[in-house]
Amino acid sequence: MKPSALPASDDHAIVIGGGIAGLLSAHVLARHFRRVTLFDRDRYPERPGTRAGIPQSHHVHVLLTRGYRILKELLPDFDVHLQQMGAPLMDWTNDVDWHVAGGWTPHHPSHLRARIASRSALEWAIRQQVVAMGRVRLCDGVVVKRLVPDATGARVLGVEVEPKAGAGDVRPGLHRADLVVDASGRGSKGPGWLEALGYGPPHETVVNAHLGYASRLYQRPDNWEATWQTLYIMNQPPHNPRSGVLATIEGGKWLVTLVGYNNHYPPTDEEGFMAYAKNLAEPTLYQAISQATPISRIHGYRRTENRQRHYERMRRWPGGFLCIGDAVCMLNPVYGQGMTVSAMAAQTLGRYLQRQNGRHLDGKLCLRFQKQLARSNSPAFLAATSDDFRWPKTQGDPPRGLALMHNYIDMVFEAALTSKLVHTRLLEVIHLLRPPTSLLRPDVVGKILRNRFSRAQA
Ligand SMILES: Cc1cc2nc3c(=O)[nH]c(=O)nc-3n(C[C@H](O)[C@H](O)[C@H](O)COP(=O)(O)OP(=O)(O)OC[C@H]3O[C@@H](n4cnc5c(N)ncnc54)[C@H](O)[C@@H]3O)c2cc1C
């Protein structure tokens, strides 16, 4: 991506929130603005580590192959940082034991590779690169309180900030910018901030499968040998709502996340956690962690609903303001799409800024970005919500034709147990490399029919 002509004005952009979406947005903005300031309310840890603003960092975070490829393209040393931290490179068809539809998927090499690491390590690797570029000023420990409009209310002039004690030399009060980007995540105050400016809250689509997480870090047993780097024991709708993932992350540690749909929240006490693991559809994960040493407490998480804020449908929008990442589109995390969708959003932002070529970003032009972003987010949102409706207690409006789709996907899962082609194609769709319609192509359909026929013969 080449830098566009710089805007004629003050050339300053502000990003609210320094998670994955905020860091990547700041990185892209730095190609188009002379100065970029990123405010995060948390103090960043001095080493890769968890922080209060990212409670999800205790849980398994898989970076899909599409996201991994985009991050390597945007940040050339991203992979080197992860490698130095000991994050293993994983081939998703060869190094994962995936238990689905009552069986294990086959092992075979493929192009579906990505490093697997904790969320803290991934964010650290991104942050190191963004800092190294030198055009982004990271101001941690600074809370953004509100958007500040100009005298007409047609434009966002900047933000009002409140530094926490010990937050360096950031002064409290108004910080002006040509462009403000809200990347403050699930808890974004964006709707309220816009309302205060007279722009009304956005319409929202919410789908809640009442899913809960419980996770714990383990030291794996000495001399451990297995065919897998990652284990995924998947739920079996509609009867068994429990899933479990064991991911080998940086330093060879095991991060184990248990997941339950339909209010079947995995417990966060020792006994309950182990009992839940024992009741997964298959015992391998339970057997592995029974031999391992826990090195963290068990962390729970339940704020997992899918929520799409339809900013793109708003009729009026202030100039100089954009919204990105989980602040716009929150996805049920179990499908592992959030970071990749944020990386795709950063690409969308880069293309959008390139096309504006330094033009003054009035409300109309900003709204155009929100429309482009909605188009980029929608396939992931549709995939996540469609699958969530397999569970009877899921709340929201189901899309049409779901029963047919669920039946077909079940046949794809079954065929993936015996066909490398179907297994690879299914993962390409899950990793957002191909559209779901590629599962309807004749080569896949042929394998599905053959599988059905041999099952009927058996
Ligand atoms: C349990 C769980 C598991 C997940 N697993 C996966 C996975 O396997 N794979 C995957 O790709 N994604 C996963 N995700 C999603 C992923 O974490 C996010 O989608 C992705 O990181 C993008 O988030 P974000 O940067 O938009 O927001 P966040 O990561 O929430 O970052 C928002 C930032 O804004 C800061 N902030 C908030 N308010 C203010 C304010 N007023 N002023 C200043 N700063 C502020 C916060 O401190 C924080 O740093 C998971 C999410 C959850 C909840």
Strand-helix topology:
Blueprint lengths: L11 E5 L3 H10 L5 E6 L24 H10 L3 H7 L4 E3 L4 E5 L2 E2 L8 E3 L3 H15 L2 E5 L1 E8 L6 E8 L9 E4 L2 E4 L7 H7 L7 E4 L4 E8 L10 E4 L8 E7 L5 E7 L9 H9 L5 H7 L2 E2 L4 E3 L4 E4 L11 E3 L5 E2 L7 H19 L6 H26 L13 H15 L3 H11 L11 H16 L1
Parallel strand pairs: 1-2, 1-11, 2-7, 4-14, 11-20
Antiparallel strand pairs: 3-6, 4-5, 8-9, 9-10, 12-19, 13-16, 13-17, 13-18, 14-15, 15-16, 19-21
- N-to-C span: 55 Å
Biggest sheet character: 8 strands, mixed
Give me the CATH architecture of the largest domain, please.
3-Layer(bba) Sandwich
Write down the CATH topology of the largest domain. FAD/NAD(P)-binding domain
List bound small molecules: flavin-adenine dinucleotide
How would you describe this structure in keywords?
disordered N terminus, globular, alpha+beta, 21 strands, Alpha-Beta Plaits, single chain, 458 residues, 33% helix, 8-stranded mixed β-sheet, 5-stranded parallel β-sheet, FAD/NAD(P)-binding domain
Describe this structure in words.
The chain has twelve helices and 21 strands. The chain folds into three domains: 218 residues, FAD/NAD(P)-binding domain; 92 residues, Alpha-Beta Plaits (2-Layer Sandwich); 56 residues, no CATH class. The relative contact order is 0.16. It starts with 11 loop residues before the first strand and ends with a helix. A hairpin with a 5-residue loop joins β15 and β16. The longest helix has 26 residues. Strands 4, 5, 13, 14, 15, 16, 17 and 18 form an eight-stranded mixed beta sheet that branches. The protein has a five-stranded parallel beta sheet with strand order 7-2-1-11-20. The protein has 458 residues and is an alpha+beta fold. It is globular, with a radius of gyration of 23 Å. The site of flavin-adenine dinucleotide has 37 residues, from α1, β2, β8 and α8.
